[in-house]
């Protein structure tokens, strides 16, 4: 084989090395893209595995110090003394009293009234993509002092939520997704205009970098938060709500209200919700009300069933 010592433009050696370099680089690039598009599913890891719980708690649920977000001095307001420093963007998204008839305030008030204005409750919520504006957890925490756990897979949305809730000590935002399986996995997030979809499909035409996210079973997230009793579980995760609920060991958790939130463009809603309602019925939950494509179920205890029966008797002439 001819040795290449001093190479000049157009020399066979230079052309050969350039071609070889580009080929190796392209292969490595394609392998990288392939690795970043695969789902890594840890089938053998149980959702109550102590090491998995410790990993989630110490890495993804670590308490971060309050960062010095940009503040401004409210000089025009008459309230406060000397102009208070206000965290930009903190309260604008919670001004429910100014828009009481909008969907999110209606649902927040509905849950609060359903639980008789309970204080110091707990909510766990994951509403991805365009469903994010329906989030009631911050209001419940701010108004009723609830402990709120918000699960957000999209990185930019995660940091926005952290900033919005930076001054709410009982609100914790976790960068993760809820696994539709009873084991953890790592998947690729695909941004499609305003929607964020979690899947393993590789788009060969996509030139930008898609981020990765770790998904944990809902029960694992509950155990990592040291709480298995919640007043509200709120899920809106692109049609994976039923799969997520099916992973829950309902004999080991206690959830008073479950809300399901569907996208406007989701198909076969009637069939899907019928199946989901039948499943929840086997777990002693009853559909109470719905607001558009937002459905609320309540756990039926012996007391609830008795009260319902008494009410029916009282209405009988």
Question: Helices and strands in order, then pairings?
Answer:
Layout: H1 12-35, E1 40-41, H2 50-60, E2 71-73, E3 85-87, H3 103-114, E4 122-127, H4 137-144, E5 147-152, H5 155-164, E6 171-175, E7 177-178, E8 185-192, E9 195-199, E10 212-216, H6 218-224, E11 229-236, H7 241-247, E12 254-261, H8 269-282, E13 285-291, E14 294-299, H9 302-315
Parallel strand pairs: 4-5, 4-11, 5-6, 7-10, 11-12
Antiparallel strand pairs: 1-8, 2-3, 8-9, 8-10, 12-14, 13-14
Helix pairs in contact: 2-6
How would you describe this structure to a colleague?
This protein has 317 residues and is α/β, with parallel strands linked by helices. It has a single domain, classed as Rossmann fold. The protein is 34% helix and 23% strand. The chain has 9 helices and 14 strands. It has a 7-stranded mixed beta sheet, with helices on both faces. Strands 1, 7, 8, 9 and 10 form a 5-stranded mixed beta sheet that branches. The chain is elongated and about 85 Å long. The termini are far apart. The model is unreliable at 32-37, 71-93, 199-207 and 306-317 (pLDDT under 50).
Distance between the termini: 104 Å
Strand order of the largest sheet: 6-5-4-11-12-14-13
Cα-atom radius of gyration = 25 Å
Strand coverage percent: 15-25%
- What would you say the CATH architecture is? 3-Layer(aba) Sandwich
Number of strands: 14
For the report, how would you describe the main beta sheet?
Answer: 7 strands, mixed
Low-confidence stretches: 32-37, 71-93, 199-207, 306-317
Relevant CATH superfamily? Vaccinia Virus protein VP39
Query: What class would the helix/strand composition place it in?
Result: alpha/beta
Number of domains: 1
Tell the overall outline.
elongated
CATH topology: Rossmann fold
| H-E order | HEHEEHEHEHEEEEEHEHEHEEH
Broad CATH class:
Alpha Beta
Number of DSSP helical runs: 9
Portion of residues in helices? 25-40%
Task: Calculate the mean pLDDT score and round it.
Answer: 77
InterPro entries: EGF_Rcpt_Signaling_Reg, SAM-dependent_MTases_sf
GO cellular component, one term: endoplasmic reticulum membrane
Protein name: Methyltransferase FkbM domain-containing protein
């Amino acid at each position: 084989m001819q040795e290449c010592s001093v190479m000049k433009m157009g020399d066979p050696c230079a052309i050969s090395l350039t071609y070889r370099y580009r080929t190796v680089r392209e292969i490595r690039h394609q392998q990288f893209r392939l690795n970043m598009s695969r789902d890594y599913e840890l089938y053998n890891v149980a959702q109550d595995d102590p090491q998995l719980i410790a990993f989630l708690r110490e890495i993804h649920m670590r308490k971060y110090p309050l960062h010095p977000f940009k503040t401004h001095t409210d000089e025009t307001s008459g309230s406060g003394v000397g102009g208070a420093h206000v965290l930009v963007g903190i309260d604008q998204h919670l001004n429910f009293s100014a828009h009481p008839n909008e969907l999110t305030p209606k649902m927040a008030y509905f849950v609060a009234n359903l639980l008789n204005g309970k204080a110091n409750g707990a909510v766990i919520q994951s509403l991805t993509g365009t469903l994010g504006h329906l989030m009631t957890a911050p209001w419940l925490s701010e108004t009723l002092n609830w402990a709120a756990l918000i699960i957000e897979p999209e990185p930019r949305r995660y940091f926005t939520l952290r900033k919005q809730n930076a001054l709410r000590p009982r609100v914790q935002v976790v960068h993760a997704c809820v696994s539709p399986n009873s084991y953890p996995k790592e998947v690729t997030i695909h941004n499609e205009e305003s929607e964020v979809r979690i899947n393993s499909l590789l788009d060969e035409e996509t030139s930008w970098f898609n981020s990765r996210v770790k998904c944990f079973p809902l029960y694992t997230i509950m155990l990592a938060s040291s709480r298995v009793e919640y007043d509200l579980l709120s899920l809106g995760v692109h049609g994976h709500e039923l799969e997520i609920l099916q992973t829950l060991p309902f004999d080991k958790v206690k959830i008073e209200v479950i809300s399901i939130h569907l996208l406007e463009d989701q198909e076969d809603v009637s069939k899907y919700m019928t199946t989901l309602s039948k499943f929840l019925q086997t777990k002693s939950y009853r559909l109470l009300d719905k607001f558009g494509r937002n459905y609320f179920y309540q756990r039926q205890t012996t007391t609830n069933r008795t009260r319902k029966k008494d009410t029916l008797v009282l209405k009988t002439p």
